[in-house]
Amino acid sequence: MMDIEEIDAIDAVIIGGVGFTNFSGSTDIAENIHLREIETPYGTAAAYLFHLDNKYVALIPRHYGKKHIPPHKINYRANIWAVKELGCKRIISTNSVGSMKDHKPGSFVIVNDFIDFTRNRACTFYEEETVHLDMTYPYCDELIKAIEKSCQDLDIEYTEGIYVCTEGPRFETRAEVSMLKQFGDVVGMTGVPEVILAKELNLCYASICTVTNYASGIGEHKLTVDEVLEYLDKSKHELYNILIQTLSHLPEERHCNCKMSMDGAHI
């Protein structure tokens, strides 16, 4: 087996969210984990490289830094460009979300569409030219099917839903949630612009969300970070298993339309 430091192309990248900076606690991950800092035109990104089930995998911790980076300050362009630098075509994103419907804390939601309510984030690689990217199907159907098959194999319940992304870092108000729940199912702060940037690079992207709380006005108590971390910790083992199983379901070649995402987008 080739040393992980010598690998030129990674089979899949996992982008880890809050509470998911590594695979600590998972007995299925090999001990040979290598941290690589990747230089990009947008800054440096960090990735943990490892070998699992005959696949080379990278974990990019979204909030990686000397201090936990808040959602509105994450260098999304560097992280997604790093996937390209790793020679990878597939991204599985993990996100923590608040439920605006009947999704219970601790459950999983596979995202099938999004609504963007962010305001101040760099959301494109194309600052010097005009592109109009088709976002009719923002998430990779092939990856979604692999995640769903994994949940079914493991007898883990899941639902599909629409993800609403807000700017953060504060939680939403009751009035905001009252409006947003008319459009979406769950609300988070990190799923956009990742999915847009991935599509601009013709990458496959899918998101599996852990519901960590009821959104403001849906539940009856004050929203706290402790509650978020509590449910992330409770769900961590199941999430690891879903991700590991999903990797085994990925075909060697892509048969989706993601590789043609930018066709017809340039003026």
TrEMBL record:
Keywords attached to this entry: Glycosyltransferase, Purine salvage, Transferase
Single Gene Ontology MF annotation: S-methyl-5-thioadenosine phosphorylase activity
GO terms classed as biological process: L-methionine salvage from methylthioadenosine; purine ribonucleoside salvage
EC number, UniProt record: 2.4.2.44
A single cellular component GO annotation: cytosol
Top-rank taxon, per record: Archaea
Residue span(s) of domain Nucleoside phosphorylase: 14-247
Oligomer status and interactors: Homotrimer.
Full protein name: Probable S-methyl-5'-thioinosine phosphorylase
The organism of origin for this protein: Methanosalsum zhilinae (strain DSM 4017 / NBRC 107636 / OCM 62 / WeN5) (Methanohalophilus zhilinae)
